[in-house]
Amino acid sequence: MSTDGLVIGRTNAGKTSFCLRLARALGLRELNWLVERTDGRTERRRMLLSEAQEILSSGDAHQTRELQTLILSVPRGKSDRIIRVTDSTGLADGLHHDASVRRAMAQTLRSMIEAKVVFHVIDASVVGQALQRAGDMKGFRLNDLDEQMFALGRSRSSYIVLANKMDLPGAREGYRWLRQHLDKDRILAISAREGTGFQEVKRHVWRLA
Ligand SMILES: Nc1nc2c(ncn2[C@@H]2O[C@H](COP(=O)(O)OP(=O)(O)OP(=O)(O)O)[C@@H](O)[C@H]2O)c(=O)[nH]1
Ligand SMILES: [Mg+2]
């Protein structure tokens, strides 16, 4: 399934929350998803944005296990353009014990090659807390997985790092480190929960239209 924007990142970084907030920022009330199951079949799912938000806030049973592509309608000139933004399974270190999760991660990596833009979601508060524990900003390295995604991202022309959860403690310090570590033009501070930073996100999404 082709996509315009692919959302990647570690488990729990806020990828699905980012997609729902983006839909809301674009004024959508109903969501149209194309779900690529790990057995290769694609199915269409429709739901109200409010329903999706409710499922997301009801615990961790809804962890994303398939590629789900949001079909977004974005105004361009007098007409609307369709943009596809794909939410993916969280990546985790090591080999996951569950084969379907491993397949879902492989699916995510394949889509990285095809997407026009990759949005890499990072929990900035987790970065800030890790920095605090390390006590030294200079020699600090993030986990291998995110560092490898940075390296992959640098080799692409369109790659955006979203420093998420800016509403949480430690996120400012995490964001500061990310800005020093990465190309400043590629990083945006957001809170998918509160909706901050989405004006800038929308600018990147409109470019896809
Ligand atoms: N405080 C705060 N919490 C957030 C924010 N974004 C997401 N969360 C919370 O973080 C948790 C994980 O969010 P998800 O959107 O499910 O994360 P995900 O990256 O899709 O997770 P997987 O699908 O399991 O990989 C949920 O409890 C969200 O409510 C944010 O900006 N601020
Ligand atoms: Mg998810």
Task: Please state the average pLDDT score.
Answer: 89
Largest sheet: 8 strands, mixed
What structural class is derived from the secondary structure elements?
A: alpha/beta
Number of domains: 1
CATH architecture: 3-Layer(aba) Sandwich
Strand order of the largest sheet: 3-2-4-5-1-6-7-8
Total number of helices: 7
Q: What ligand species are in this complex?
A: guanosine-5'-triphosphate, magnesium ion
Provide the CATH top-level class: Alpha Beta
- Determine the fraction of residues in helical runs and give it as a percent range: 25-40%
General shape: globular
Uncertain residue segments: none
CATH topology: Rossmann fold
Distance between the termini: 18 Å
> Helices and strands, in N-to-C order?
EHEEHEEHEHHEHEH
Rg over CA atoms, rounded to whole Å, is: 17 Å
Count of β-strands: 8
Organism: Alicyclobacillus fastidiosus
Protein name: 50S ribosome-binding GTPase
Domain G: 6-165
Pfam families: MMR_HSR1
Outline the structure in words.
This protein has 209 residues and is of the alpha/beta class. The protein has one domain (5-206): P-loop containing nucleotide triphosphate hydrolases (Rossmann fold), CATH 3.40.50. It contains seven helices and eight strands. Strands 3-2-4-5-1-6-7-8 form an eight-stranded mixed sheet, with helices on both faces. Strand 4 and strand 5 form a beta hairpin. Helix 1 (15-25) runs antiparallel to helix 2 and helix 4 packs across helix 6 (171-181). The longest helix is centred in the middle third of the chain and has 16 residues, at 99-114. It is globular and about 50 Å long. The two termini are 18 Å apart. The mean pLDDT is 89. The structure holds guanosine-5'-triphosphate (GTP) and magnesium ion.
